[in-house]
Amino acid sequence: MEKTKKDFSFLSKFISRHARISLSFVFAFIVLIGILLTYYFLPILLNYGPGTINTDFDREFSSGLTYFMQYALLYVALTIIGITFIVIFTRDFRNIETLKKDAQTDSKAAERLDKIIFKCMSLPQYLFVIIALLPTIIIGIIFLFLGFTSFADVKVVLVAFTISLLVASLAYIFLKSILKSVIVGIGNTKKFEKAKFSLTATLILQLSSMLFVCVLYTFLLSYSNNLEDKAKVLSEHYRQEIQSVISYSNINSIDSLKEVLSNLEFISPNDAVFLIDENGEFINFTNAEVTDFFMKYALDLSKDNNNLVYDYYGTESQGTVIPLKIDGKSINVVVKYDLSNSFLIPIFSNLIIIVIYCIISIYFFSTSVSNEISLVADNMKNISEKNSSDRIGEKLSVTSNNEIGDLVIAFNDVQELTGKYISQIENNQQVLLEQERLASLGQMIGGIAHNMKTPIMSVSGAAEGLTELVGEYIASINNPQVTAEDHKEIAKDMLDWITKIKTHTAYMSDIITAVKGQASQLATSDYSEFTVYDLSKKVDILIKHEIKKALLTLETTIECDPTLTIHGDINNLIQVLINLISNSIQSYEGKAGEKIYFTINADHQNIYFTVKDTGCGMPEETKEKLFKEMFTTKGKNGTGLGLYMSYSTIKGKFNGNISFESEVGKGTTFVVEIPIEKEEY
C-alpha cells in the first residue's frame, strides 16, 4: 500500500512538472480514439458500399486519396491544431517550479502562478467547446460551400458531431484530472470566481453530451439498418416484378426488352431502370439521372456483392442487378431505387422531444444535486465566519438516500463532534481560568500573610514595651525620687509605642481593605479518596453548632451507595458545602424551627450534592451576579467571597459545576455536580 502511494505521488509530481507533455499526449490519444471511432462507424452509419474504401475504386472517386489516407491527414491536422492550442495556452506552465519558489517573495511571480491556476481551471471547458464544435463547424462550412446534395451530407455532419461530443467528453474528464494534479502540485488554496464553473453546469455538460452521443448514435444506426432492410425489400420486389413481366411478354430482342421495361411501374418517381449489354456497356435508355459511381459499381463490384449496387458514399439510393437471357445473349437489368424515408421527420421530431425532456430532467437533477451540496458548503461557510458560534451543533435534514445523504450525515457528525470539542475546550478554558484564579489568590494570600508578619511582630513588640512601661510607671507612684520629668519621659515612651501600634495596625487595615476581606482557608491540596458517608459525617459535625445556634434542623439524606468513592481534597469540598448550608441558615433571617435539606445522590456519571431551603430566595439581579463576581447581599457582614470561591473550587479542583434555582419568598436550591471518575490535576 505504501509503495502504491509513493508511485502515485511520483506520477502526480511528474504530471505537475510536465503538464504540457501530459496534456499533449492525452489530447493526441483521445483524438486518435475519435478518429478510429469515426473510421470504423462512418461506413456503417452511412451505408457505404462494400469494396468502396481503401481500394482503387475508392482512389478514383476520392481525389486520389484512399479512405485511410483521408483519416490519417485528418488526425494529423487535428492533433497539430490541438497541441498547438495547448502549447500556446499553457506556455507559462514550463516555469511552475521556479514560480513556486519566487512567489513567496515576488508578487509578480505570485500573479503568474495565479494565472496558471486560472488556466488549469478553465482549460477543460475551453477544450470541450473546441473539440465538440470545431470539427462539426468545419465540416458544415465545407458542405455549405460545396452545397448539400442529399441527406447523406446531413448525416455526415451528425456523425461528426456525435464523435466530437464523445471525444470532447473523454478529453474533459482526462484533461481535468491532469490539470487537477498541476493545481495540487502548486498548492492552491484560493477561489477564482472568473474560472468558476458550477456543478450544475458541469453535470449538464457531461450528461447532456453523453445523452446526445447515445441518441444520435442510436438514431443513425437505426436509420442505417432501416435503409438496409428497405433496400432488401425493394431489391426483391423489383426482381420479382421484372421476372413476372418478362415471363408474360414476348421478348426476343433488346429493343423489345427496353419497351417492356419502359412501362415498368416504379414505387418512387426517382426510381429508374438501366441495361448492361453483353459487351459490358451501361445503357441508359430512359435518360434517367445516374451517377458515374453507380454505373461503375454496377459494372465492377455488383457481382461480388449479391448483385446489389450502391450509389455515391452515403447517398440514399441503391440498386439491384437482375441477370437475363434474351435471344441467347446475357443481358443485365439494373434497377435503381430511392431509399429516402418519409418517416424520418416524425422520428427525428420525437427524438428532439425526448432530448428536450431529458435535458430538462438533467437540469433539475443537476440543480437538485448542486443545491444539496451547496447547502452543506454554505453551512460550513457560515460556521467558519466570525460570530457564528450559535450555529455550532446545528444539523441538516437528510433528504436523499445516496452519497449526498452520506455527505449530510458526515456533516452532521462533524457538527456534533465540533460542538462537543468546543464545549470541552470552553470547559477546559474555564477550568484553567479557575485554576489560575485559585493559584493567583493563593499566591496573593501567601503574600499577604508574609507581609503581615512584620507589623504583627511589631505590634507584639510594642505591647511588650508598653507592658514594661506600665510596670515601671506603677512602681514610680509615690516614689519621691521620680520627678515630674521622669513621668513625662515614661509617658513619652508610651506615646511612641502607641504611635508605632497605630502605624502598623493602619498598615494591616489597608491590606485587608485592599483585598475586600478575601480570607479563605487555602491549604495545600491533599488529593485522596473518601466516601460519601465520610463527607456527610464531617459536614454534619462541623455545621452542627451553627445549626443549633440558629434553632434550625439539618435533614441529611443519602440516596446512593454510602461507600461510593470520591477523588479529591475532602477539606475543599466540605468548605464548599458548609458555605452553602451557612447561606441557607442566613436565608431564614433568624426564623426558628425551619429545615434545611442536604441530599446526596448519583447516577453512572456524576455525584450530586443538593442543599435546599425554603428561605427568602434571591431576586433576578442577585442571581445574575452570583458566580460572576464577589457579590453579597449581607452588606458589611459579607464579602461575596464564599459562593465565588465555592464555584471556583468546584470548577478548578473537581472539574465539576454548581447550579441553582431560586425564587423570592419560596427558597433556594443549590446543586453541586462532581464527576465520579475525576481526572487528576
List the main descriptive attributes of the protein structure presented here.
alpha+beta, Helix Hairpins, 17 helices, single chain, five-stranded antiparallel beta sheet, elongated, 4 domains, disordered N terminus, five-stranded mixed beta sheet, 681 residues, 12 strands, Beta-Lactamase
Task: Note down, in words, how this protein is organized.
With 681 residues, this protein is an alpha+beta fold. Mean pLDDT is 76; it is low at 1-14, 514-524 and 629-641. It is 62% helix and 11% strand. The protein has helices spanning 2-17, 19-45, 56-61, 67-89, 96-102, 107-146, 151-186, 199-247, 254-262, 292-300, 344-384, 403-476, 484-514, 532-549, 570-587, 620-625, 641-654, and strands at 272-276, 282-283, 308-310, 317-326, 329-338, 528-531, 553-558, 565-568, 595-602, 606-613, 657-663, 667-675. It starts with a helix and ends in a 6-residue tail after the last strand. Strands 2-1-5-4-3 form a 5-stranded antiparallel sheet. A 5-stranded mixed sheet has the order 7-9-10-12-11. Strands 6-8 form a two-stranded antiparallel ribbon. The chain folds into 4 domains: 14-197, no CATH class; 229-344, 2-Layer Sandwich (Beta-Lactamase); 435-514, Helix Hairpins (Orthogonal Bundle), CATH 1.10.287; 528-675, Heat Shock Protein 90. It is elongated, with a radius of gyration of 52 Å. Helix 12 crosses helix 17 and helix 14 runs parallel beside helix 15.
